Amino acid sequence: MNKKIFGIAFILTGVLVFTGVGCVNKSPADAQKQTKVNPTTNANFLIANSTDVCNLATETEAPNAQAKELKSIFNEAGGEMKFIINIPQDSQTGDTFVYVLKNKPTTKKLESAFKKHGYKIVMSGDMMIVTKGLLNFSISLTDKGECQQVVIMTSEEPFKLGGAVTTGECKKMLEIARLADYYKNDMYTSWSNAIKLYNYWYMLAAKYGVAKEVIAKTCREKLGI
Length: 225
Hints:
Blueprint: H1 3-16, H2 28-34, H3 39-47, H4 53-56, H5 65-76, E1 80-87, E2 96-102, H6 107-116, E3 120-123, E4 127-132, E5 135-143, E6 148-155, H7 167-180, H8 187-208, H9 212-223
Antiparallel strand pairs: 1-2, 2-6, 3-4, 4-5, 5-6
Helix pairs in contact: 1-7, 2-3, 7-8, 8-9
């Protein structure tokens, strides 16, 4: 695999794609022609990281009980959460839910609300890991000025702290990166996987207690690219 894909994945995708670079010549109407996803979801993808995402994102119906419960937990903790995007599970990741959150609750209140609903807190902060039964949820909160963008990814794999990023995790991240490459895929595929990559990459950095750049460097070495 040439180095260009990783360059796009970890630099362009992680930073520039999220601010709209590469998309400036594509209107929401253009995006809707490229994918069968409904117009509201498409519009939310396009504005998910705009400068006014806090006011422009339109709430859509949460797809299942899990997504609804996660929203209610943040609201019970004192936040104002609205669901905007559902990215269905695939061979690399579980379901990914994207929300906009105003009035960010304190860590203490969030932990209390999650525990009230039967969740265990493995790790907390702007990158949270919570578990319930066989399911694990990685939750990243990104400051967007007047609100937080919350990305929640589900997984059936147990979350274990310690050690170093594995070759399997690096391969999974690379596959997501391939799909996130804007120059190789349609807009919906690249943007949805950019969101997944952002969450997964930051989760690994938090899991192993290192900077995200260290994760990228280690994975390049493990995969020989």
